[in-house]
């Protein structure tokens, strides 16, 4: 019999995505299906998620078929008072897989992003929004909703962290599913004052060191890590790194005590969305045998970013503009990149001071540095398909997906040697080049010197067209599909169910 999993997350591509979490949660159902795992995704009812359900259901009435479908009929369940607001459970479909949505207007019917207002400020009731979401997930997975039955609740990041804790401390029914907590980014922990505890509807004993208590307050990710049967993160190297204070961000002690339950499973990429030979957002599609066609995309990148046309290397960036991503160091390195004959096309959004730094750089080096501030899915595909290299100087990177997209698209990744970046890119040292296995460039510490050194190495390698193509082809031949990792999640679920 297939294993049934409720995958609980605040994002899932194509409905809602602010970063890699959305990509991964969106890809998991298809990744796990071949391994006998039935994934239902559970999402908050943000306006755009509900709108997609409605659009799909009206399309269905008119005989069409969309990515999401839902006969917007009776809700599957109603909570008259879910931690302070009414909510109901709706059903739909996402890319052919089952979707459940928590429709709770008091929590989710808001303008803005999933976590904050249009100006980017976090909502001050996020603690209640995601406690309610986790409580509902625990009810659905734990047998409180007629017709719903799950073997495993798989929680992703802090927004879902309370779900395993609710199942542990306040299960809705005697039989509880096994639980998995996946860390996509330990920097976001959902940490709140102790004062909120009384509103979480947890028994008093849950406010304990081995429960939801965290440095005197309440920690949502902490609660999940403490309560889940298994902990995973998104690369083997990051799974080791978070055992140390430098990367554990306060959770290293807890993770060390639960180390036997921790594993690192690297993310795959959704090849239905990310394949250069079938990508609808590209002016020219190509594969490893037709790399020359990338030139058309390169011209399109030059146009989109107002770069002077030329044959020199175009570096790109597709990133949140934050300290994690080393974007301050990159901003400093721009004059050196230009001096080396490189051009830069940057797509990103994030911290205001970094956005300003890149705006300034574009003004200082017109034709060499092109900047688009904002979020643009189609443009992110074009950059991978038309740029020569992608720069990823992250200070930490649990997995990273943009280097994987770069590999698949022949856009050579230049990355800091950390987390998933260390695990997925083979550095072009002399031996790897001679053996023809190099797929990118790694550098050790995120400093001005090492980043500039890596950029210099990239421009040198790029100058030798044959060698550069060899690196591109080696990356494109690597397997970053979900096949292996899908199997690993499936065996993890099986082990938990057998235990
Ligand atoms: P993180 O989740 O830490 O931001 P990842 O590399 O795992 O980093 O995933 C980032 C995802 O978000 C990728 O799919 C990337 O293409 C996308 N992305 C990041 N910034 C932008 C942007 N400004 N426009 C479009 N896509 C973006
Ligand atoms: C997080 C991490 C990123 C990872 C993504 C998906 O946002 O920062 O490294 O790829 O989650 O797991």
General description of the model:
The chain is an alpha/beta fold and 499 residues long. It folds into 2 domains: 3-268 and 483-498, Rossmann fold; 288-477, Rossmann fold (3-Layer(aba) Sandwich), CATH 3.40.50.2000. Helices cover 38% and strands 19% of the residues. It has 19 helices and 18 strands. It has helices at 20-32, 47-61, 105-108, 126-141, 162-169, 220-227, 236-241, 245-248, 252-257, 294-304, 327-339, 352-364, 377-386, 402-409, 419-424, 430-435, 448-463, 465-477, 483-498; strands at residues 3-8, 37-44, 77-82, 85-94, 97-103, 152-156, 178-183, 191-192, 213-214, 217-219, 230-233, 262-264, 314-321, 343-350, 369-373, 389-392, 412-416, 441-443. Strand 1, helix 1 and strand 2 (37-44) form a beta-alpha-beta unit. The chain binds adenosine-5'-diphosphate and alpha-D-glucopyranose.
What's the total number of strands?
18
Please state the overall shape, judged from the principal axes of the Cα atoms. Answer: globular
CATH superfamily caption of the largest domain: Glycogen Phosphorylase B
Largest sheet: 9 strands, mixed
Which stretches of 5+ consecutive residues score pLDDT under 50? Answer: 63-71
List the domain count as a whole number: 2
Average pLDDT, rounded to a whole number, is 96
How far is the first residue's CA from the last residue's CA?
A: 17 Å
Strand order in space, largest sheet:
3-4-5-2-1-6-7-11-12
Number of helices: 19
Percent of sequence in beta strands: 15-25%
